[in-house]
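Checklist before submission:
- one chain only
- standard amino acids only
- sequence pasted in full

Submission:
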Amino acid sequence: MAFLQTHSFSETLGINTEIYVILPQQTFRQIGMTGETPEGAPPVLYLLHGLSDDHTIWMRRTSIERYVAPLGLAVVMPAVGRSFYRNLPHGGAYWDFVSEELPRVVQQFFRVSTRREDTFVAGLSMGGYGAFKLALRCPEQFAAAASLSGVLDFPAWIERSKAGQGMDIRELPGLLGPAMQPIPEEDDLFTLARMRVEDAQRGIAIPRLYTVCGREDFLYEDNVRFVNHAREIGLPLEAHEAPGEHDWAFWDRGIQKVLEWLPLRKSS
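Returned file contents:
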């Protein structure tokens, strides 16, 4: 595998930003690990970080490079701060960055597939929310999305934060605006899920969805609520739970399961 650290200017954010990228490399003599490359441009996984982390965290806390080596899968890890993958009222347009500019820049800089069936997104905690938000708002871009311990009920998270049980309440005006506006429909996964089910009834494809959360995780009830909602409205969703907390021991196991689940095309 090749590991690249890119520094480039984001027209959307108006700042230089860093992206970590893993690219497939076929190897035969590398001790302890062999790599594979698919025929043609490789599929790509956008791997998103959580609230208290950054783009480096998956490389630092897991063996993601080793896990994807035999799969011939490229991995893109962007930095979005504590934005919740939103266009902030008085900050960066992080939603526009991850949904529009980032894929365009990746395709400009690297040889990766541009096909929907080869494009996936996954993330943990805040990044789990971001992954499902990308899949449900941009179903034409992604074949599959996975959430690990995701903030799947964003309005509930905001209400807990107002009560001092989530984010620091002083951060909320920067996230929601000084008037503390309610979460709009395009940021609410429950509403987006219902919209995608309506689309499916008109023949529009929904990305495959996968979620896993630990039973001891403080976000467990939020995850159960979203899973029940998906089942009630007929949204296809593969849901798992297991013993575990909101920690890297759980996510390191979880990302390996996600990689096994991804609908990767077979090399001929």
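Reviewer check: The beta strands are 2-10, 15-23, 44-48, 74-78, 119-124, 144-148, 208-214, 238-242.
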